């Protein structure tokens, strides 16, 4: 029998979110129902609410989540009822051209649940990133569940499901930061601070945090930044060059995703250095760079999709680092809130007051 549970939806573009009754089907073949224990409030959810992703309203928001498997459908072997899991939006298919090349972190055919969750009147919901986790129970594809050690709190573990993995992976997986490297991170929200933490774990010796907000720069120090630059009053390109012997950083991560920050990242890297874009731009944004500079500076310009992560590999590894006291997941949790406080959490996010608000159910 379908379950009727409370969930948070965005009914139309720009409208305040609502807590409503949602019907969650029993899991079908290859599907899993998860009792959600905690879900982070990510900027992507705000993009959905604002119509910045697509117009397939109403959306069931939330995707940075952890919880317990309640029931599994036919053919599911990856997880079983009672397993503690982090939800992910890269359930790899194992068969597409990326998977066939041994690069499943680029999987081009990721899976979602086949059945739809609905409102009580039958209106189908579009789950954010194929998950929809601002809800007491959610229906996902089995591959979207990654089993991890329950020693981590759900509030902290769930954040690996999106922003923290994206930032960490941008530095470590995509950027390939190495021992002794210099790294600059532009934008020090949750994603940027995770990139800083990843760079520190990988052994970078100069880690420069760049932001307009002193509160975020202070947070960045706690995750391993060795230097901070407030770009509201100082040219970040000049500052990064000064802090790297006049050369620029080996790796610059743009965790904002705006034309001006990408240009800063491009010119703040050393010759043959690497730029990684992990901040998500809007469809209208464009950038113009002299092609001679693109050629003459060499190096790599990369985009990082979900931190180029493989959840089955990376989530357990990061939980192990957390258990060892080497990766401070708890430090990303600014506050815990209830389902009916999400609209206020969006406002705090926009004002830069939190790294992550986390809904605890």
From TrEMBL:
Record-annotated Enoyl reductase (ER) domain positions: 14-361
Keyword Transmembrane: yes
Entry similarity comment: Belongs to the zinc-containing alcohol dehydrogenase family.
Coiled coil ranges: none
Protein's name in the database: S-(Hydroxymethyl)mycothiol dehydrogenase
Keyword terms of this UniProt record: Membrane, Metal-binding, Oxidoreductase, Transmembrane, Transmembrane helix, Zinc
Classification via NCBIfam families: mycoS_dep_FDH
EC number: 1.1.1.306
Residues spanning the membrane: 154-172, 184-210
PROSITE patterns, per the entry: ADH_ZINC
GO terms for MF: mycothiol-dependent formaldehyde dehydrogenase activity
Keyword Manganese in annotation: no
Cofactor: Zn(2+)
Highest taxon listed in the record's lineage: Bacteria
InterPro entries per UniProt: ADH-like_C (IPR013149), ADH-like_N (IPR013154), ADH_Zn_CS (IPR002328), ER (IPR020843), GroES-like_sf (IPR011032), MycoS_dep_FDH (IPR017816), NAD(P)-bd_dom_sf (IPR036291)
Family annotation (PANTHER family): NAD-DEPENDENT ALCOHOL DEHYDROGENASE, S-NITROSOMYCOTHIOL REDUCTASE MSCR
């Amino acid at each position: 029998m379908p379950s009727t549970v409370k969930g948070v939806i965005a009914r139309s573009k720009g409208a305040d979110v609502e807590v409503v009754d949602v019907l969650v089907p029993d899991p079908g073949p290859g599907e899993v129902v998860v009792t959600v224990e905690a879900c982070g409030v990510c900027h992507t959810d705000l993009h959905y609410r604002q119509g910045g992703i697509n117009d397939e309203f109403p959306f069931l928001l939330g995707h940075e989540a952890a919880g317990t498997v309640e029931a599994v459908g036919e053919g599911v072997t990856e997880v079983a009822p009672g397993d503690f899991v982090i939800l992910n939006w890269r359930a790899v298919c194992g068969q597409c051209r990326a998977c066939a090349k041994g690069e499943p972190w680029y999987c081009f055919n990721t899976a979602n649940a086949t059945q739809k969750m609905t409102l009580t009147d039958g209106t189908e919901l579009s789950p954010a990133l194929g998950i929809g986790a601002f809800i007491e129970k959610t229906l996902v594809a089995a591959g979207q569940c990654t089993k991890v050690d329950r020693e981590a709190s759900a509030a902290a573990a769930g954040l690996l499901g999106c922003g923290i993995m994206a930032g960490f992976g941008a530095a470590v997986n995509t950027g390939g930061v190495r021992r002794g490297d210099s790294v600059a991170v532009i934008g020090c929200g949750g994603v940027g601070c995770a990139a800083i933490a990843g760079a520190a774990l990988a052994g970078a010796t100069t880690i420069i945090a760049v932001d307009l907000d002193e509160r975020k720069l202070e947070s960045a120090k706690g995750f391993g930044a060795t230097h901070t630059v407030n770009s509201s009053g100082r040219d970040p390109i000049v500052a990064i060059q000064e802090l790297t012997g006049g050369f620029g950083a080996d790796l610059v991560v743009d965790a904002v995703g705006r034309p001006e920050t990408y240009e800063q990242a491009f010119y703040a890297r050393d010759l043959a250095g690497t730029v990684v874009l992990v901040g998500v731009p809007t469809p209208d944004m464009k950038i113009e760079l002299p092609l001679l500079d693109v050629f003459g500076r060499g190096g790599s310009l990369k985009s990082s999709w979900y931190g180029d992560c493989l959840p089955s590999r990376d989530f357990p590894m990061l939980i192990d680092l957390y258990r060892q006291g080497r990766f401070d997941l708890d430090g990303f949790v600014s506050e815990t809130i209830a389902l009916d406080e999400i609209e206020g959490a969006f406002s705090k996010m926009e004002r830069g007051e939190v790294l992550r608000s986390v809904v605890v159910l």
